[in-house]
Write a structure and sequence with these properties.
The structure holds two protein chains of two kinds. In chain A, 79% of the residues lie in helices and 0% in strands. In chain A, 30% of the residues are buried. The mean pLDDT of chain A is 89. Chain A is built from seven helices and no strands. Chain A has helices at residues 10-29, 39-50, 54-69, 75-96, 100-119, 122-137, 139-166. Chain A has a single domain (10-166), classed as Arp2/3 complex 21 kDa subunit ARPC3, CATH 1.10.1760. By secondary structure, chain A is an all-alpha fold. By secondary structure, chain B is an alpha+beta fold. Chain B folds into two domains: 1-32; 38-136, Ferric Hydroxamate Uptake Protein, Chain A, domain 1 (Beta Complex). Chain B is built from three helices and eight strands; from the N terminus they run H-E-E-H-E-E-E-H-E-E-E. Chain B is elongated. Classes of the chains: A mainly alpha, B alpha+beta. The A-B interface holds A 95-97, 99, 101-102, 105-106, 108-109, 112, 136-137, 139-140, 142-143, 146, 150 and B 4-5, 7-8, 11-12, 15, 18-19, 22-23, 25-26, 29-31.
Chain lengths: 169, 138
């Protein structure tokens, strides 16, 4: 979003709704492929255009996911994992400009660390031992996540970023 | 821009290095497929006295379960029928024992002793040696 107005316009709210719908549809369209997802990519590219407001989008997304899959101890992970990606994009975007490889790498690293980040909630339940065991057993999924995120972002970043730039906010 | 590209390449390399390290961590500390806890040795002695040996570890409680595992994992095969006394072994590794024709049968030995049970009620203990021997009734 080019405008950095602190107040939300009707257009901003409508845009958030549309982005949430896009993220949800893309998430569930690829549900049959474990850890191959478009959500990381979409959050990255949306953050580049809409800034910190995407934090709210991640929480809205997490809430819908909870309504869909139900609430459990793992629910808490949704609410902190995606914001970490948004914060990383906001802090690092000045180094990457609009380089697809930069964001592909960022997305890949996020995929690689996804299991570790998600495992943090097990620290509270079962301590360090449980957290490390949980994380290590999921490493193959993190590797798939990394490769998937990297490839998807590398391929889609340029066209989607260009399309978003054409939208005049 | 050139500096940026160099930094990005370093980032990609770092990501690949971390991924390789994670593979190493998983291979070293990751969950291992259960290999079973009880050591066994199964020998099959055919009509020519030739012996085929199978060794490994199993969690099978009874010999029949171990035989089924061997069918899945080795070149071991067997056929049998359910009788009033449990599993009656008719053939092993394709060699059929026909008692009605020549008095041939498959006997089970457990740790060198003639087995007291059928395959489906013979317990498997750690270190057990089972023998299937093609024998002719005298």
């Amino acid at each position: 979003m080019k405008s950095h107005n602190k107040h939300w316009s009707a257009f901003d709210i409508a845009s958030m709704g549309l982005m949430l719908a896009i993220v949800e549809v893309c998430k569930h369209a690829l549900d049959f492929l474990p850890n191959i997802e478009l959500v990381s990519f979409l959050f990255i590219v949306f953050t580049l255009h809409f800034g910190w407001r995407i934090l709210i989008l991640t929480w809205a997304f997490s809430l819908v996911e909870c309504l869909y899959f139900g609430f459990g101890p793992w629910t808490i992970t949704y609410f902190y994992v995606w914001p970490i990606l948004i914060i990383a994009v906001m802090l690092l975007k000045r180094f990457g400009g609009e380089h697809p490889l930069f964001y592909a790498t960022l997305s890949g690293c996020f995929g690689l660390s996804f299991g570790f980040l998600c495992s943090l909630y097990t620290l509270v339940i079962g301590g360090v031992g449980m957290q490390i065991t949980w994380w290590i057993s999921g490493i193959p999924y993190d590797l798939v996540h990394c490769i998937g995120n990297f490839t998807i972002c590398l391929v889609l970043f340029y066209p989607v970023n260009q399309a978003l730039k054409r939208l005049k906010f | 821009m050139k500096k940026n590209t160099k930094g990005i390449i370093i980032g990609v390399v770092a990501m690949v290095v971390v991924a390789i390290l994670l593979v190493a961590v998983w291979l070293t500390f990751g969950p291992k497929a259960s290999a079973g806890t009880k050591a066994y040795e199964v020998t099959v002695t055919d009509n020519n006295g030739e012996v085929t040996t199978y060794e490994g570890k199993t969690d099978a409680e009874y010999l029949k379960e171990l035989m089924d595992e061997l069918v899945e994992e080795e070149d071991f095969t067997y056929e049998g029928s359910e009788s009033d006394y449990g599993l009656f072994i008719e053939s092993i590794n394709g060699l059929k024992a026909d008692y009605d024709t020549d008095g041939a049968y498959w006997s089970i030995y457990v740790n060198g002793e003639y087995g007291q049970y059928g395959a489906d009620s013979q317990p498997v203990a750690d270190g057990d040696k089972f023998g299937f021997v093609y024998e002719i009734a005298q």
